Write the structure tokens for this entry.
Amino acid sequence: MSVSVAVIGRYRYVVLDGDNGQQIIIPLEEWSRLADQVGAEPELTAEQKKGYREQFAAEKQCVHCGGLHLRACPRVRRIVWRNKEEPAEIEYWASGRWPEGGIIFPEDVYDEEPG
Ligand SMILES: [Zn+2]
């Protein structure tokens, strides 16, 4: 598959050439709109935000990344345990090198006036 940009008249298009000879042409604006959706987080409802704020207030956030998530923390690269509860050594991924998708951070839920 190869990707190129074609200008037809006043409009620009993204052209995808498939290995099987198939060609897909998408207006550049549409391509940008689709690209913006990739990785976009779904909007939280007021009810969900309230629930998450309660969890932050109860200090339920992850000690490693400061967010709320269900699975193991994606910021943690490696943990060496001293015993069952106590880590001896924690290695983190560098900033920007770990996926933040699916994690709720305080700034995601404290954007409204308290009330
Ligand atoms: Zn975490």
